[in-house]
Design brief:
This protein is about 30% helix and about 25% strand. By secondary structure, it is α+β, with helices and mostly antiparallel strands. It folds into 2 domains: about 55-70 and about 135-270, putative membrane protein from Corynebacterium diphtheriae superfamily (putative membrane protein from Corynebacterium diphtheriae fold, Beta Barrel), CATH 2.40.410.10; about 75-125. The protein has an 8-stranded antiparallel sheet with strand order 9-8-5-6-7-10-11-12. The protein has a two-stranded antiparallel ribbon with strand order 1-2. Strands 3-4 form a two-stranded antiparallel ribbon. β3 (about 20-25) and β4 form a beta hairpin. α3 (about 85-100) packs antiparallel against α4 (about 105-130). The termini are far apart.
């Protein structure tokens, strides 16, 4: 199979290397060669042309992503990346089944409620990566690992550039060890709250690597990002607080970078 490093060099890996880690012959970075089962997960990708036929279950379809993720989540990869909520909802479901089976039939109502909650949670995760928008991300800190993500929060009129700092540990990015400056693709959902502002008030970015181990999907999402978006991210990162505290940072018209605060007395942020 063909393997491509983040340095741009590509080479062919024979079957004896499947499932192993090797060093790039050009830059020396460690690359993970997918095993046969991981290669089979390429079928999880969805042709973007089919997106219109994939209706969301948990989202408002009145807004469409300009660059949708268009891939299905690997539940195991997601649960490993974000274990708290999957484990909590599953534990509550299993915990409600015991009294339903051993105590009284009425506990089946509670079990049914938790079953629905589990279903809705996974549909929300599915919709995030199927319908969410692909944005550029860059590692800005390793200990702890923090990622800067750029997006324009506009509803379509004007420009509202923003950077979101998230904290998420990733062992590998594109098959290589992450370093400060490493680029990665993230998929975001947007929140307008109860505001009638001409832009979204926040967005929720999640790394593609946290949702799928498939290198083909990771590479496709990374290559789908416009060079202008990478340029904006690179220009905004040096203007952020050097502590890179997680949060939303908005570029104001006068060039000041604001750390986001919910609207109070007509203001939408405060200067750092």
């Amino acid at each position: 199979m063909r393997i491509e490093c983040v340095c741009g060099k590509a080479f062919l890996a024979n079957k004896t290397l499947y499932g192993r880690q090797v060093r790039c012959p050009s830059c020396g970075d460690v690359l993970s060669i997918p095993n046969a089962s991981q290669q089979a997960e390429s079928a999880l990708a969805i042709d973007p042309k089919e997106l219109s036929s994939q209706q969301s279950v948990t989202l408002d379809d009145s807004a469409r992503a300009s660059n949708p993720g268009s891939f299905r989540v690997s539940p195991l990869r997601w649960a490993v990346s974000y274990p708290i909520w999957p484990c909590l909802w599953l534990a509550l479901l299993l915990g409600s089944l015991a009294p339903a089976l051993l105590v009284h039939w009425s506990f089946w109502i509670l079990a049914g409620a938790f079953l629905f909650t589990n279903w809705f949670y996974w549909m929300r995760v599915r919709d995030h990566f199927l319908h969410g928008c692909v944005n550029p991300g860059m590692i800005v800190s390793l200990h702890p690992m923090r990622i800067a993500v750029y997006s324009d929060l506009t509803h379509g009129v004007g420009a509202y550039p923003a950077v979101k700092i998230i904290q998420q540990k990733l062992r590998l990015i594109g098959g290589s060890q992450p370093r400060i400056g490493t680029r990665l693709a993230v998929v975001s959902l947007y929140n307008s709250g109860l505001s009638d502002l001409p832009h979204w008030i926040d967005f929720d970015p999640r790394p593609v690597e946290s949702a799928t181990p498939d290198p083909a999907i990771q590479r496709r999402c990374l290559e789908s990002i416009d060079i202008e978006d990478w340029t904006m991210l690179s220009e905004l990162i040096p203007r952020l607080p050097k502590s890179f505290e997680p949060g939303l940072y908005i570029l104001r018209e006068d060039g000041a970078v604001l750390s986001y605060d919910f609207p109070r007395d007509g203001e939408i942020g405060r200067t750092k």
